[in-house]
Write a structure and sequence with these properties.
Four copies of one chain form a homotetramer.
Chain A (H helix, E strand, L loop, with lengths): L10 E5 L6 E4 L4 E4 L3 E4 L11 E4 L2 E6 L3 H6 L10 H10 L7 E5 L5 H10 L4 E6 L2 H13 L6 E5 L2 H4 L6 E6 L8 H7 E11 L2 H13 L3 E14 L6 E2 L2 E3 L4 E6 L3
Parallel strand pairs in A: 7-8, 7-10, 8-9, 10-11
Antiparallel strand pairs in A: 1-2, 1-6, 3-4, 5-6, 11-15, 12-13, 12-15
Amino acid sequence: MGESRWSEGDVVALKHPGTPPILVPLRRGPQRIGDAAILDLTEQIGQAVGGSIEWVGTRYAVLRPSLSDLLSTMTRGAQIITAKDAAYLVLLAGIGPGDRVAEAGSGSGALTTVLAYTVGPAGHVVSFDRRPEALHLARQNLERGGLADRVSFHERDVLANGIEGTGYDAVALDLPEPWGVLLSLRAALRNGGRVVTYSPTYNQLERTVRSLRELRFDEIRSLELLERPLHVGEGGTRPAFEMLGHTGFLTVARKVD
Amino acid sequence: MGESRWSEGDVVALKHPGTPPILVPLRRGPQRIGDAAILDLTEQIGQAVGGSIEWVGTRYAVLRPSLSDLLSTMTRGAQIITAKDAAYLVLLAGIGPGDRVAEAGSGSGALTTVLAYTVGPAGHVVSFDRRPEALHLARQNLERGGLADRVSFHERDVLANGIEGTGYDAVALDLPEPWGVLLSLRAALRNGGRVVTYSPTYNQLERTVRSLRELRFDEIRSLELLERPLHVGEGGTRPAFEMLGHTGFLTVARKVD
Amino acid sequence: MGESRWSEGDVVALKHPGTPPILVPLRRGPQRIGDAAILDLTEQIGQAVGGSIEWVGTRYAVLRPSLSDLLSTMTRGAQIITAKDAAYLVLLAGIGPGDRVAEAGSGSGALTTVLAYTVGPAGHVVSFDRRPEALHLARQNLERGGLADRVSFHERDVLANGIEGTGYDAVALDLPEPWGVLLSLRAALRNGGRVVTYSPTYNQLERTVRSLRELRFDEIRSLELLERPLHVGEGGTRPAFEMLGHTGFLTVARKVD
Amino acid sequence: MGESRWSEGDVVALKHPGTPPILVPLRRGPQRIGDAAILDLTEQIGQAVGGSIEWVGTRYAVLRPSLSDLLSTMTRGAQIITAKDAAYLVLLAGIGPGDRVAEAGSGSGALTTVLAYTVGPAGHVVSFDRRPEALHLARQNLERGGLADRVSFHERDVLANGIEGTGYDAVALDLPEPWGVLLSLRAALRNGGRVVTYSPTYNQLERTVRSLRELRFDEIRSLELLERPLHVGEGGTRPAFEMLGHTGFLTVARKVD
């Protein structure tokens, strides 16, 4: 989207080589960044995306944040889904631009962000959580990333009351007891649509797959991803010593009637 | 995209529970599927996506193919990038709807398909390969998936002649010697844009990262993904015995000036 | 043990570079190897270990087989414990030269071979199985490896009748329901001795650990090992594409009263 | 070895359920343990291994330390080889009771301990290091474990001066440049004997294998082991979040003339 111009309300990533990007909303007038520094981006409004500014003695590129920028700068509540799992979940669920998808729960909004980014301006995400504080944090994170207009947040206990709405292209579940939602979820999916669950334990995995089989879901598949960072040295290249041993098990299944 | 209607030229996925989807172009009149069976989809034209048909005694849902449907039914030439790697590459590269991206080489069109699907109808993919037969296979696969209008294929030896064009949001390299392209690629990227390379060996990885450092790319990061399939039995759940031991190393880096 | 001399009844490994070792018992007179070839090792008796012979036009080193030679040439019945798991099981169980250990079941004798090799001539292994055909195969494999005199095989259903004997330094369980043996096994272990179980599913793992906790075993620890073969090419080094995705979960625990 | 009796100079493991074992030499008279507590084990001398004592209000089993007890209580200098790697190295190298093996370097004595334990009282280990302080620490650790009489330590730069001695059953190398020793090592191995190297980087791996091929070693094989700890909860079992991402690459090869 390299040729677009900045509008008021956009989210800007200020990027200087060697330091992480800083995400800032594009507003008129000075705004306080972090503890003390004052930044005024007013002049960027209407200019081409991808220029640069001088701020507190440093030159920054003024960029449209990418999905990985949004994820890496997110305010975290509880443990969030990792980028590798979110990326693969989206592909396994068959989610693309223009899709209408649901998720439960909202968590900190990390998966919501990935979904909202992927469905694009023509798509929509419905996000359910029964905890007001989770909804609040997720909404904040989506606003911070400039993607809030693609998401409807609903305070709802889907285990008790089911998934609301119908015709979803896909539904993603990041819940402790996903099996309790699958019956209502099946009715909420369009034909050929997919559900993906993300669960940390084998016990959850087994019980989820059992329910998917009982409900005659098709193309059921479970897997996990391990990400191994690599240390690249000059003449000393190896896998990194630090590694996350486990994130979660992914299960995907399809409604076919 | 659940509410759209079928148009002539769309690609349809016929799906019966328990069997893989069959991809068919939506044409007027009968067409031969596989060895002998004749299928006539004419009546679907103008109807809502997601209906069903009766064909050779079996009921099929008539679905819009998802990205995973496209990948799993692709005609393969040489070894293709796996779905997990393609999905994570897209996220690491920051690619989303509306983006303009390049890739070299085209391979069998698997990564091209993922890129074209992800950038959506508002985006564009430029795909370079110096081998006419690879371009031919990749183009066939994109046409088969109904995504060919989002891709420009160019016969070009990017190692000798560099990446053509400028202002790309991202460039993906699946080449034996990616380091030879990085200088021209840097000029072809917009500021803040990213390159991702996919290489099977440590030697390629080390040499690529060395070049990225010399060319002052930012946010350089290398990793690999391992996908572990899970066998879920009733009271007998475990990792699957079959597993692919290695696919490739991913390296991502960002141009920041 | 490089300085010993060959005795009648020893097992010999004939080794030619580039081909796997051939294991042969050292007997007087000609013996048939494989389909047709006749071999006479009579002259080796009394000679130093490590010499060489000429046989069917090829020179072979005449070696004492190592544990990995024994494992790689073993006649396999059902799936056997892999070398990596057997080696780590032995260390985790604290098994060394001179120890007296038990195992159930005997399987094909692969783990029995590792145990017998490790405890050395001063130690002893008691191996239980309720299936006569498993005991027969295991005994054959131990005889073939020249280690049968360190092992007592017992036809016994340890689930129904418990582990026989007391004062074992360690007990290894490769059974579908190891938890059913743990009570009798605790009585059969010396104080400070360890049990190690090897189970393919998480359900078995969880139930085993629950029983170990109920029976107040100490130092309970569960893990799995993944072996990743490496392909080393000149300028093309990488993990191998072929890899075994899963073998089994190891659990070790200690009796401390 | 459950029936033996304690002798002066043995090493004792004091073990109370729920706490790590405490290793103490068996001496006459009181000795200071840790900061302040005084322990007198004199009465154990001549008694059967496996009894118990009362000390500072707690009952301890008085056990012969196993190999895993020795490793887990070792005084560490630099990074040491992990237990899984040491156990598999021993099996791959074909090392068993009675063998005569060499290692370079001595490191902190962790691998030395595993080798000395495995070869048993009838075997022997020769350990080379060019750094006096490494030899000192390794020797201390072997004495602390009661295995020092099975090991000869030699201050020697094997890269410059080669492996000393001949007829070794196996040689283990934990050196930054193992390829520099392989020529002298080949001469020091008995026919059929094996070398195992342990290296953190792929660059070392590739260069080592190249040298092994040039020197016509047989049965060359490279691999790595990943240990994945398991968290076993009641109804909540999963791989642990903590995991070591990399230890080292193992290469084994055999001299066959």
